[in-house]
Amino acid sequence: MGSEVELDSNQNQTVWVSTSQENETTGLNAQLLELKTEVNSMKAEIKAEVSSLNQEIVQLRKEVREEYKKVSVLFDEILNKIEGVKLPTTTHGAFPIRPDLLKEYSFPLASLEEINNFETELKVNKNLKEEFFEFLKKIGGTTGEGDAAKVGYKIVDTLFSMEILTYYSWTGISKKKTNQEGKHSFSALKTLVQIIFEALLICDTRYNLQKHEKLFKEGVLKHAKKRFERKVKQQEAKNGHVTAENEGQQDKEKEKTTLEENKDCNSSDSEIEDIQ
């Protein structure tokens, strides 16, 4: 009997331990589920906040563009009142267009003298500076969502000949000198560089001064010689193709002339035979 009681006691103890472990596991699972629910809830809140912020950013961009347009129109009106003349405005509305100011400059500029003179004139002539800015904006656009790097090359190729760019580096220092005087400093053309920067910034709002320096220092000026040599080769190849075409055309004309001469000779022979 004593052993049976002892056995029952052990069984009860085992059942109690098992039940206790199950209760503890159930409690942990409940806590884990609660934590997962909280995490998912936090994720949803963060996602909603990010989405809301993105919408606010888009809306702010639209508002900034609208305000810019309003300010531009207001600025034009002020200019008109000051000058007492109704001036035509550009499609972008920033400054009045005066097309005659750029007529004396033939782009692309192809000499150091032309570039230096243009830089000097931009410093002292506000109207020329404004018109030049409008000119660049037409090339790059004003959406703020363009590609400043691509537009930058397009502007450079419009303003400067590829050959003249080989005489420049960003600082004017070069290990390989192209002439006895060495390289000229492109960054010294401060007004010109600044206006190009402002035009590219309107084209692409992600643009900044660091990218601007990199565009010229490590892109346009660093590879100016290669780009110029490539253009020369392309031109030579084109001229060679034209020459070959001309030679082929001349051969065809000679062959045609020979056939006509032979035909005339045959006709003459026939006429002589008829007479005889």
Structure write-up:
Helices cover 74% and strands 1% of the residues. With 276 residues, it is mostly helical. The chain has a two-stranded parallel sheet.
Which word captures the global form?
Answer: elongated
Domain tally: 2
SS-based class: mainly alpha
Q: Counting H and I runs of at least 4 residues, what is the number of helices?
A: 8
Rounded radius of gyration (Å): 40 Å
CATH architecture level-2 label of the largest domain: Orthogonal Bundle
Give the percentage of residues in beta strands: under 5%
Indicate the CATH class of the largest domain. Answer: Mainly Alpha
| Helix amount | over 70%
Low-confidence stretches: 1-5, 85-97, 264-276
What summary fits the major beta sheet? 2 strands, parallel
Count of strand segments: 2
How is the CATH topology of the largest domain named? Arc Repressor Mutant, subunit A
Mean pLDDT: 78
What is the straight-line distance between the termini?
163 Å
Strands in their spatial order, largest beta sheet: 1-2
Encode the helix/strand succession as letters: HHHHHEEHHH
Pfam families: DUF4806
Organism: Brassicogethes aeneus
Coiled coil: 36-70
Biased composition (Basic and acidic residues): 249-266
